[in-house]
Write a structure and sequence with these properties.
It is a single chain. By secondary structure, the protein is an alpha+beta fold. The protein has two domains: 59 residues, Beta Barrel (Thrombin, subunit H), CATH 2.40.10.10; 30 residues, no CATH class. Helix content is 23%, strand content 23%.
Length: 112
């Protein structure tokens, strides 16, 4: 099942983006890098449509992580939670936390 999610924190461009230049640079009129081409919305399926690029500031942060850690690191809450269907069956509103190990971020933060 596809879940629609809005695209956020990107630059919208009318530059053609296709498999050959996805991942390539988005330059301003002076030749400065402003983003990395990443996606296109094209109702026709062609390379014309609305293009989206990741801003260079976002890319810089990711590159720094790859250089430092050898991969992109993601934040972790340090909890395990019940599946959505189980929560609905129990009539719980929100997230049902099953475990928060004391050595994890949530455990170290303590109860809310």
């Amino acid at each position: 099942m596809y879940v629609w999610r809005p695209i956020q924190d990107v630059i919208q461009t009318d530059a053609a983006i296709n498999p050959g230049n996805s991942g390539g640079p988005l330059l301003d009129s002076t030749g400065s890098l402003i983003g990395i081409n990443t996606a296109i919305y094209s109702p026709s399926g062609a390379s014309s449509g609305v293009g989206f690029s990741i801003p260079v500031d976002t890319v810089s942060g990711i590159v720094d992580q790859i250089i430092k850690f050898g991969k992109v690191t993601r934040p972790v809450l340090g909890i395990s939670f019940a599946p959505e269907q189980a929560v609905e069956q129990l009539g719980v509103t929100g997230v049902l936390v099953l475990d928060a190990p004391p050595e994890g971020p949530a455990g170290k933060a303590g109860p809310c």
